[in-house]
Amino acid sequence: MPDAAAVRGAVGAAVAEFRSRDEALPEQRRTRAERDRIGREIWSRTLGETGLPLRAVHAAQSLGFLASAGEPPMLFAAAGWLRLRTPYGSVVVRIGGAMAGLSVTPA
């Protein structure tokens, strides 16, 4: 699992890519559907080799779970679930299958 700074960097790069691609759209194509398509493409990517979707890392960052102080984030896997645990809370993602989803738990 990368350290918190690298994880925040991955989220920052994904956000920058989304903004860049959104701004590059012609005005007539700046629709919710097009923005959702771009978002799904970016946020479904994984954090390096971890298998953790960037949408889960983005959720953790947005909720302040990836603060710079404290112990590094840890990743746990069990029975089709991935859990990103930080000192400030956890994000749990069900991977694969029709019921894939995201759950957030503050510390």
Automatic annotation (TrEMBL):
Instruction: Note the superkingdom of the native organism.
Output: Bacteria
> What positions does the domain DUF8185 occupy?
3-96
User: What Pfam families does the record point to?
Assistant: DUF8185 (PF26572)
- Name-wise, this protein is DUF8185 domain-containing protein
Say which species the protein is native to: Streptomyces thioluteus
